[in-house]
Amino acid sequence: xxxxxxxxxxxxxxxxxxxxxxxxxxxxxxxxxxxxxxxxxxxxxxxxxxxxxxxxxxxxxxxxxxxxxxxxxxxxxxxxxxxxxxxxxxxxxxxxxxxxxxxxxxxxxxxxxxxxxxxxxxxxxxxxxxxxxxxxxxxxxxxxxxxxxxxxxxxxxxxxxxxxxxxxxxxxxxxxxxxxxxxxxxxxxxxxxxxxxxx
Length: 199
Fold this sequence. Notes:
- Belongs to the YkuD family.
- It comes from Acinetobacter guillouiae NIPH 991.
- Keywords: Cell shape, Cell wall biogenesis/degradation, Peptidoglycan synthesis, Transferase.
- Pfam families: YkuD (PF03734).
- By secondary structure, the chain is an alpha+beta fold.
- The protein has two domains: about 1-30; about 30-195, Beta Barrel (L,D-transpeptidase catalytic domain-like).
- The protein is built from five helices and eight strands, in the order ααβββββαβαβαβ.
- The chain has helices at about 5-25, 45-55, 125-135, 150-155, 180-190, and strands at about 60, 65-70, 75-80, 105-115, 115-120, 145, 175, 195-199.
- An eight-stranded mixed beta sheet has the order 3-2-1-8-4-5-6-7, covered by helices on one side.
- The N and C termini lie far apart (about 55 Å).
Protein backbone atom coordinates (compact mmCIF):
# COMPACT_ATOMS: atom_id res chain seq x y z
CA UNK A 1 0.00 0.00 0.00
CA UNK A 2 1.21 3.48 -0.84
CA UNK A 3 2.48 5.26 2.31
CA UNK A 4 0.45 8.39 1.58
CA UNK A 5 -2.75 6.33 1.99
CA UNK A 6 -1.57 4.40 5.05
CA UNK A 7 -1.99 7.19 7.64
CA UNK A 8 -5.51 8.25 6.47
CA UNK A 9 -6.56 4.57 6.49
CA UNK A 10 -5.23 4.09 10.02
CA UNK A 11 -7.03 7.25 11.17
CA UNK A 12 -10.32 6.02 9.62
CA UNK A 13 -9.85 2.62 11.25
CA UNK A 14 -9.23 4.23 14.65
CA UNK A 15 -12.36 6.39 14.25
CA UNK A 16 -14.42 3.32 13.28
CA UNK A 17 -13.17 1.33 16.29
CA UNK A 18 -13.83 4.25 18.66
CA UNK A 19 -17.34 4.71 17.19
CA UNK A 20 -18.24 1.04 17.64
CA UNK A 21 -16.90 1.03 21.21
CA UNK A 22 -18.80 4.22 22.10
CA UNK A 23 -22.03 2.88 20.59
CA UNK A 24 -21.76 -0.41 22.49
CA UNK A 25 -20.96 1.33 25.79
CA UNK A 26 -23.69 4.00 25.60
CA UNK A 27 -26.31 2.35 23.35
CA UNK A 28 -28.63 1.72 26.31
CA UNK A 29 -28.97 5.46 26.92
CA UNK A 30 -30.05 6.39 23.39
CA UNK A 31 -33.58 7.82 23.70
CA UNK A 32 -36.60 5.82 22.64
CA UNK A 33 -38.31 7.49 19.69
CA UNK A 34 -41.28 9.53 20.94
CA UNK A 35 -43.42 7.95 18.21
CA UNK A 36 -42.96 4.59 19.99
CA UNK A 37 -44.49 5.95 23.24
CA UNK A 38 -48.28 6.12 23.25
CA UNK A 39 -49.12 7.92 26.50
CA UNK A 40 -51.47 10.87 26.46
CA UNK A 41 -50.59 12.59 29.73
CA UNK A 42 -53.36 13.82 32.01
CA UNK A 43 -54.38 17.27 33.15
CA UNK A 44 -54.64 18.06 36.87
CA UNK A 45 -58.46 17.88 36.60
CA UNK A 46 -58.28 14.43 35.00
CA UNK A 47 -55.91 13.23 37.72
CA UNK A 48 -58.29 14.47 40.43
CA UNK A 49 -61.24 12.83 38.68
CA UNK A 50 -59.39 9.50 38.55
CA UNK A 51 -58.45 9.77 42.23
CA UNK A 52 -62.10 10.34 43.15
CA UNK A 53 -63.83 7.86 40.82
CA UNK A 54 -61.27 5.09 40.24
CA UNK A 55 -58.49 5.32 42.85
CA UNK A 56 -55.48 3.14 42.16
CA UNK A 57 -55.61 -0.10 44.16
CA UNK A 58 -52.63 -1.90 42.60
CA UNK A 59 -49.63 -1.29 40.37
CA UNK A 60 -48.76 -4.11 37.96
CA UNK A 61 -45.35 -4.33 36.33
CA UNK A 62 -44.88 -6.62 33.32
CA UNK A 63 -41.15 -7.03 32.86
CA UNK A 64 -41.25 -8.84 29.50
CA UNK A 65 -43.59 -6.21 28.01
CA UNK A 66 -41.70 -3.27 29.65
CA UNK A 67 -44.94 -1.70 30.90
CA UNK A 68 -46.33 -0.43 34.21
CA UNK A 69 -50.11 -0.53 34.68
CA UNK A 70 -52.08 1.39 37.30
CA UNK A 71 -55.17 -0.60 38.26
CA UNK A 72 -58.47 0.13 39.98
CA UNK A 73 -59.29 -3.43 41.06
CA UNK A 74 -59.55 -5.25 37.67
CA UNK A 75 -59.83 -2.05 35.62
CA UNK A 76 -56.72 -0.88 33.73
CA UNK A 77 -56.53 2.89 34.38
CA UNK A 78 -53.10 3.95 33.02
CA UNK A 79 -50.24 2.23 31.17
CA UNK A 80 -46.66 3.54 30.89
CA UNK A 81 -43.52 2.29 29.15
CA UNK A 82 -40.61 1.53 31.47
CA UNK A 83 -37.08 0.15 31.66
CA UNK A 84 -35.56 -2.36 34.08
CA UNK A 85 -32.30 -3.48 35.60
CA UNK A 86 -29.46 -4.10 33.17
CA UNK A 87 -29.83 -7.92 33.55
CA UNK A 88 -33.63 -8.15 33.71
CA UNK A 89 -34.44 -11.83 33.24
CA UNK A 90 -35.28 -13.62 36.48
CA UNK A 91 -35.97 -12.59 40.05
CA UNK A 92 -33.51 -10.45 42.01
CA UNK A 93 -31.41 -12.61 44.33
CA UNK A 94 -28.47 -10.50 45.41
CA UNK A 95 -27.16 -6.97 45.54
CA UNK A 96 -25.62 -5.79 42.29
CA UNK A 97 -27.09 -8.51 40.06
CA UNK A 98 -28.90 -5.95 37.88
CA UNK A 99 -32.22 -7.75 38.22
CA UNK A 100 -35.62 -6.30 39.04
CA UNK A 101 -37.51 -8.34 41.69
CA UNK A 102 -40.59 -10.39 40.85
CA UNK A 103 -43.51 -10.96 43.17
CA UNK A 104 -45.92 -9.03 45.36
CA UNK A 105 -44.64 -6.07 47.37
CA UNK A 106 -45.87 -2.72 48.75
CA UNK A 107 -45.00 0.79 47.63
CA UNK A 108 -44.24 1.79 51.18
CA UNK A 109 -42.66 5.27 51.00
CA UNK A 110 -41.64 7.98 48.56
CA UNK A 111 -38.71 10.30 47.95
CA UNK A 112 -39.45 13.70 46.36
CA UNK A 113 -35.70 14.40 46.05
CA UNK A 114 -34.62 11.12 44.49
CA UNK A 115 -31.40 10.86 42.48
CA UNK A 116 -33.67 10.21 39.50
CA UNK A 117 -36.29 12.94 39.88
CA UNK A 118 -38.89 11.31 42.19
CA UNK A 119 -39.26 7.75 43.44
CA UNK A 120 -41.67 5.31 45.06
CA UNK A 121 -39.98 2.60 47.15
CA UNK A 122 -40.74 -1.09 46.59
CA UNK A 123 -40.69 -3.13 49.82
CA UNK A 124 -38.07 -5.57 48.49
CA UNK A 125 -36.54 -7.60 50.12
CA UNK A 126 -39.32 -9.43 51.89
CA UNK A 127 -38.66 -12.26 54.36
CA UNK A 128 -38.53 -14.88 51.60
CA UNK A 129 -35.97 -12.80 49.67
CA UNK A 130 -33.84 -12.39 52.80
CA UNK A 131 -33.96 -16.13 53.53
CA UNK A 132 -32.92 -17.03 49.98
CA UNK A 133 -30.02 -14.55 50.04
CA UNK A 134 -28.98 -15.84 53.49
CA UNK A 135 -28.90 -19.43 52.15
CA UNK A 136 -26.64 -18.25 49.33
CA UNK A 137 -24.45 -16.21 51.69
CA UNK A 138 -25.10 -12.94 49.85
CA UNK A 139 -26.80 -9.62 50.53
CA UNK A 140 -30.27 -9.43 48.94
CA UNK A 141 -29.77 -5.74 48.11
CA UNK A 142 -32.54 -3.19 48.40
CA UNK A 143 -33.50 0.37 47.47
CA UNK A 144 -35.67 -0.85 44.59
CA UNK A 145 -37.77 2.04 43.30
CA UNK A 146 -40.06 3.21 40.57
CA UNK A 147 -38.30 6.41 39.48
CA UNK A 148 -37.75 8.83 36.61
CA UNK A 149 -35.21 8.52 33.82
CA UNK A 150 -33.47 11.88 34.12
CA UNK A 151 -32.06 13.69 37.15
CA UNK A 152 -33.40 17.04 38.35
CA UNK A 153 -30.17 18.78 37.37
CA UNK A 154 -30.36 17.29 33.87
CA UNK A 155 -33.97 18.49 33.49
CA UNK A 156 -33.06 21.97 34.74
CA UNK A 157 -30.47 22.22 31.96
CA UNK A 158 -32.62 20.52 29.32
CA UNK A 159 -36.39 20.53 30.08
CA UNK A 160 -37.14 18.23 27.14
CA UNK A 161 -35.63 15.40 29.23
CA UNK A 162 -38.98 15.24 31.06
CA UNK A 163 -40.05 12.92 28.19
CA UNK A 164 -36.73 11.01 27.97
CA UNK A 165 -36.82 7.22 28.16
CA UNK A 166 -33.69 5.23 27.28
CA UNK A 167 -34.09 2.65 24.53
CA UNK A 168 -32.68 -0.23 26.64
CA UNK A 169 -32.65 -1.42 30.25
CA UNK A 170 -30.09 0.43 32.37
CA UNK A 171 -30.92 0.57 36.08
CA UNK A 172 -29.40 -1.50 38.92
CA UNK A 173 -32.79 -3.19 39.45
CA UNK A 174 -35.23 -0.28 39.65
CA UNK A 175 -38.18 0.41 37.37
CA UNK A 176 -37.54 3.60 35.36
CA UNK A 177 -40.26 5.61 33.62
CA UNK A 178 -40.23 9.00 31.91
CA UNK A 179 -40.20 11.90 34.37
CA UNK A 180 -43.49 13.18 32.95
CA UNK A 181 -45.02 9.76 33.69
CA UNK A 182 -43.42 9.69 37.14
CA UNK A 183 -45.29 12.91 37.92
CA UNK A 184 -48.60 11.17 37.13
CA UNK A 185 -47.73 8.01 39.05
CA UNK A 186 -46.64 10.17 42.00
CA UNK A 187 -50.05 11.90 42.08
CA UNK A 188 -52.18 8.81 41.41
CA UNK A 189 -50.53 6.16 43.61
CA UNK A 190 -50.68 6.39 47.40
CA UNK A 191 -48.15 4.95 49.84
CA UNK A 192 -49.29 1.47 50.91
CA UNK A 193 -50.42 0.46 47.40
CA UNK A 194 -49.68 -3.13 46.34
CA UNK A 195 -47.19 -3.60 43.49
CA UNK A 196 -47.14 -6.92 41.62
CA UNK A 197 -44.11 -7.52 39.42
CA UNK A 198 -44.39 -10.24 36.78
CA UNK A 199 -41.67 -11.82 34.63
